[in-house]
Fold each of these.
Amino acid sequence: MNNTINRTDSIYANTGYGPHFDVLEIGLPDRVAVVEPDTAFWAIVERDALPDALSGKLVQDFRNQSEIFAKEMDHMRFGLTPSAVYFNPTERCNFNCTYCYLPEEMRRNGKNMTTQELEDALARLLSYFRGHLPEGMRPQVIFHGSEPMMVRDAMFAGIEKFNDDFVFGVQTNASLLDDEAISFLGEHQVGIGISLDGPKADLADLTRKNWNGTGSFSRVVKVMEKLSSYPAFNVIATVTKKNVQALPEMVDFFSDFGVGMVMFNPVRCTRQGGLDLKPDDLVLAKHFFDALDKTYELYEKTGKKLVVTNFANILAAIIGPTSRRLMCDISPCGGGRCFFALSAHGDLFPCSEFIGFPAFKGGNIYEDDIKDAIASPAFMKTTGRKVEDIEPCCSCAIRHFCGSPCPAEVHALHGTMKAPAPYCRFYEEQVRYAFRIIANGREDAYLWDGYKDETEESFCWAG
């Protein structure tokens, strides 16, 4: 909504010199959100006071701070350098999940890294990160998959050797996590993320199953019991049309097992299996928000939080752009810019989602300089993807709260990066929901503990 802004010294119309505000309905009868899209500035405004807000103090206050807002957003989008790597030490997996974004042949017969190859790669990564990260800052290495526990001995040897140099994490289907492995990971303070897609075996095992068609729900539940008190533990549930209605039930289920953080991650449409399981955007929104409502009810009754991390990240990004932890919901996304991925062959990609797409290979860690790979045309296809270049995202009020992710699935679906996200409507409704949470003063219940310590208030408007 472009407005004529009355001021005492002049009148600014939509000439390109004044700020352009959009009014966003957020599902409340008495309040709306006002957003300045270029800077992600926003305010919750009483509906009856909207004309005064858009012609008075709100506009002037924004103009006084707009340069700061613009610099902050520009740095967030273009000023960061990689501090993490998704390390894929094997192409193989003992599972054949219906929606996996990696090719089946790769997962069935692909390469395993040797201990020497893995340690050599870690040494080269360490040299790269020490070249640009602040002294004393440890970069993150997340062993990712396929299934990293398939090369357990090599991975554990690398963790043992470089434990003082990196912050390690492991994302696993949990089927190979035995007591010895859990003990080792705990002793070395390795973050553990496991995957589980439902509160019951018949649902969880429907899409997550091994090559014989058998799931591991009971095994994963036993692992969850053992990890319930582990501080660096989280769960990812991939949301499909098969399990979307069970999201509220999952909240109670995960909470009963002491899980503190869960990601309800909509299935990626990078490959046909995922696309076939994509839930309708509005169906996803309904059950996703019902689940979030359930986490609030849980918090009110017990004081315990179950943080839905992908929603918490959107909420944090609205409250303060630099407080977000995940970098999928901004453009350019974090791929190749805040993190990158390493394949079992040593090939470098902007993100693990691109492994399996050779055109996005930027180099090889054993043969090329990592800096050259990050600056390569292959990486720049991702790091140069901006919502300003995408229709209709370029004119969207929430473009810096969404980012039109994920570039890999957009490319897979459309053959181009300049297309909107397949979950566009869901992301829109998610931002509306987040603004309702903020308007009702309930954000603390949805955000991780200590988030306020990670933010600094630069502007506060009461109107």
Amino acid sequence: MPEAISTTFMDTDTNPKARTQSPGLERFLADVERRALVMAEIATRSREEALDLVQDSMIAFVTRYGHKAETEWPPLFHRILQNRIRDWYRRSAVRNRWKGWLGFTDDEGDPIQMAPDLRFATPERELQRDQSRDAIAAALSGLPLRQQQAFMLRIWEGLDVKDTAKAMGCSQGSVKTHLYRAMQALRGQLQEYR
């Protein structure tokens, strides 16, 4: 993994509580880090934004809930992460509105970021795997936010319905409904990759 998020703030002098945390907390953060980054990246469609969201979530989690029992950590962490993602959506909507009013657009993107990496030859199997991974990411990104959250927390993260409801801040019935709708949409869009 190219970036290490969880250890970047554990040794800082700005958070004296973090230096006294248990090894269990560091293990938890290391374990959840990659999956949280994927969740945030799918939601934001930006690696840099996702890194910021996950790091902010980890810092907030350690600061507020590091003293709680380990069994409570997954839903608490994911609740913070999902709240950060929702806040990001709100800020983006306002930012995009202002850009639209001022006549700025981001249609083209960064040409350097869009350029293919020619250092490595990609065999056919790698190409197919990349295409299916991209199709899954695009399908997940196309889901409404609540369906995306329910799918990522239940299927990707493996939380049970109760913990997913706690993380999303809704009822267990809502989690089941959002997950059902997400599964239906994904099955329809990804039929050729089954």
Amino acid sequence: MSVQITTLSNGFRIVSEPMPGLESAAIGLWVEAGARHEAESQNGIAHFLEHMAFKGTARRSALQIAEEIEDVGGYINAYTSREMTAYYARVLRPDVPLALDILADIVLNPAFEGREIEVERGVILQEIGQALDTPDDIIFDWLQETAYPGQPIGRPILGPSAQVAGFTEGDLRRFTGAHYGPGQMILSAAGAVDHDMLVRLAEPLFGHLPAKPAQKPEGARFFNGERRETRTLEQAHFALALEAPAYRDADFYTSQVFSGALGGGMSSRLFQRLREDRGLCYSVFAQSGAYDDTGMITIYAGTGAEEIGALAELTIDELKRAAEDMSEAEIARARAQMKAGLLMGLESPSSRAERLAKLLSIWGRVPDISEAIARIEAVTAQGTREHAQGLLARSGMALALYGPIERAPYLAQLSERLAA
């Protein structure tokens, strides 16, 4: 059994991977259109579309969509990212045709009925309000906006409330008309699936769609900057970013391993130094995310008003120290964590289907898992230190702070400490 890929004449791609022994399947449509494909006046519309997919089609009401998938014990959901929107389902083997029919229906034939638009508008405005009331959620949107100011990739996925309040049916249809072409879609499935059957089912559902050119989003440019929002909260929230490699960059895996060793677990430097040794915080982590043309290493911690200054300064010190003396043992541990996470994810058909779609979108093929493992294993302590030194030397920093932050140092102070 192996990955199979078929491309219809109009550019629609189908990728699948059977998983012997399973009686369930994960199947979904990944559309290469997310928040960074929006014009400024459209910010939030990709996410709005994701919500509206479940509010009825030309053939099904919102209730019928829910009932049909749940009548067979299935599950259906969606999400929006900065570069993709995904609509996916989990069903038993005999119900794969039903799941695909429903997914095609909600993506290709949304009704966009006026009352349902208003109902879902209210739901999304509540979602935006909830995010604004969740400090360790909203701070990452602020960090993204600070690192990529005035750019589509820097705007929040949910969009601003004032703009979401004005979206119309015409706005929704214009966005799908521009970005939901067959060449921008990937049907991905894993588990109890048969590739030939998927192709036969997909042909009448998607094969008739006219091809349309993909609209390349504006390129990303990382900037230095900071955002400080003082508010009476129990904790001060600290988020720091450095520009990292993009998906296809040769240093992608090195950056992933470095961020894991820096703050990816309980044994990581930041966790041990900031929490275990100094007791400055409860939660602290580092992670490396990537996009088509850029990436970002993010460090986050929540701490008290009195401790924020020491935490920020110690974080910079640990960044500098990691670039100088990251050990082979630390890198080996981070490599092991990364490999384990990758391989454990393959045991889930949902994770595997998502992986297939993302890799096909990035590379135009699905590299064998052995390629990823080999690249992870090739990361060395020396290479990681050199990579970290390069990041700190050539890249600025973005900083977001929220809460009782009066004692927090400014970005200029942290930059001076980093350069000292």
